[in-house]
Recover the amino acids of this structure.
């Protein structure tokens, strides 16, 4: 690609020419569309290069070229006829390089060239060939001013630059004041927030103290309730047992014969007394468990034997023809636990399952789970709504509308079973869907402490 024809050339012979080249530099920069500040930068760079070149004792030739392709730019080449002058020029022109986008000092056989490039802003008008011709014609008619004119222009530029510096300094002072103000606001806000935080902290500490006090009160109340229940149930047990015994005596064939009506009434009394005894026994068991008065008697429990016993004792309850009572072979032969307490837990769960299952099956199984053992009692009975899965473990709670298919129940079986599971170092949980059935799971650890 051929280099475009320069927009302007001029010679630099005497010091006065430095002013002229400076003026022309500004003119060319303005003509190709550089902004005023960049016009001054280029003019200053050019006059400095001219001055340094002249100081070397030789004249120089200046050429301005505009490049319209790629990134449009203006190139100024200043050439002197002294080969190898770059070593002298470079250190003196180091600062000048900062006024343009690119600057290079090159040695040639016929002389030394300083080339400076300034890119044109995106908003500059396009450099078409016609426009370049117009610029050339305009520059050719340009009449250079005197050094005094140039000094005047430089002074004006200096004043403008000083004004700008002052405006920037004022703006900086204003920003600083604003920043200080903001800082003061932030500090005030911070102080307010930390005061509020301190206040809140004090409140939380007071609340905790109150909570501690309340939990002590609750514990005392709960212990009193347990003591009361244990005493009352203990006191009730003897007379209720006596009523049942007396009833049995009354209807015994060895006693005086009763009329049919009397016999029915005594049976009613005996039935009620038996229910009452179940309740009193349940309460007593629960009170004992809550008072921490149940100490497990640890041993290696043979699960096959225990399952066989449960099958035998509960089979009489599985009277419904549509219900399969299945006791699986335990997948784990033995577990370290208390056989009486573990048997009680599983018995409670199985009794419930048989009570609440009309068709399908009730199944007891045991498998290894991690280090421990997991027992499941699964039924296909009425099921329990999800929101009541925790409530059924509360004392006396019975699912509203849930009709046990046999026997009334006391609402104490599950809370007691959960207590016992806890005493054995394990846990009791439920998974159940209304209409589909329930699965109660007892997890025991391998080595209870
Ligand atoms: P209850 O003596 O009433 O059986 P529990 O504490 O053992 O007392 O059970 C509480 C309630 O939980 C029961 O009344 C019943 O509503 C519900 N429930 C327990 N087990 C089952 C089950 N297998 N299927 C459906 N509902 C059950």
């Amino acid at each position: 690609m051929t280099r475009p024809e320069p927009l302007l050339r001029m010679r630099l012979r005497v010091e006065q020419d430095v002013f002229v080249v400076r003026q022309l530099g500004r003119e060319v920069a303005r003509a190709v569309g550089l902004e005023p500040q960049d016009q001054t930068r280029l003019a200053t760079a050019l006059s400095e290069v001219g001055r340094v070149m002249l100081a070397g004792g030789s004249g120089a030739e200046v050429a301005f070229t505009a490049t319209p392709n790629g990134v449009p730019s203006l190139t100024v080449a200043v050439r002197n006829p002294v080969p190898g002058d770059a070593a002298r020029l470079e250190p003196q022109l180091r600062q000048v390089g900062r006024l343009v986008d690119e600057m290079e000092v090159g040695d040639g056989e016929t002389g030394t060239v300083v080339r400076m490039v300034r890119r044109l802003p995106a908003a500059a008008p396009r450099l078409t060939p016609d426009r370049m011709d117009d610029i050339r014609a305009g520059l050719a008619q340009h009449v250079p001013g005197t050094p005094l004119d140039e000094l005047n222009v430089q002074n004006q530029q200096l004043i403008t630059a000083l004004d700008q510096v002052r405006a920037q300094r004022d703006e900086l002072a204003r920003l600083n004041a604003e920043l200080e103000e903001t800082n003061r606001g932030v500090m005030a806000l911070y102080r307010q927030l930390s005061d509020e935080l301190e206040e809140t902290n004090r409140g939380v500490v007071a609340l905790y103290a109150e909570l501690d006090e309340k939990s002590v009160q609750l514990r005392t109340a709960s212990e009193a309730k347990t003591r009361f229940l244990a005493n009352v149930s203990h006191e009730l047990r003897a007379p209720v047992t006596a009523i049942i015994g007396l009833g049995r005596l009354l209807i015994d064939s060895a006693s005086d014969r009763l009329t049919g009506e009397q016999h029915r009434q005594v049976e009613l009394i005996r039935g009620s007394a038996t229910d009452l005894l179940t309740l009193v026994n349940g309460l007593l068991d629960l009170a004992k468990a809550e008072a921490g008065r149940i100490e497990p008697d640890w041993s290696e429990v043979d699960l096959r034997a225990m399952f066989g016993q449960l099958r035998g004792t509960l089979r009489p309850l599985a009277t419904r023809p549509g219900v399969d009572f299945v006791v699986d072979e335990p997948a784990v032969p033995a577990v370290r636990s208390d056989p009486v307490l573990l048997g009680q837990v599983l018995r409670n769960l199985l009794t419930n399952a048989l009570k609440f299952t009309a068709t399908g099956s009730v199944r007891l199984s045991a498998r290894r789970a991690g280090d421990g053992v997991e027992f499941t009692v699964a039924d296909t009975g009425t099921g329990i709504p999800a929101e009541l899965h925790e409530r059924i473990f509360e004392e006396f709670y019975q699912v509203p509308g849930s009709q046990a298919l046999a026997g009334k129940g006391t609402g104490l079986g599950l809370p007691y079973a959960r207590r016992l599971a806890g005493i054995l170092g394990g846990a009791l949980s439920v998974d159940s869907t209304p209409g589909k059935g329930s699965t109660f799971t007892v997890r025991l650890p391998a080595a209870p402490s």
About this structure: The longest helix spans residues 147-250.
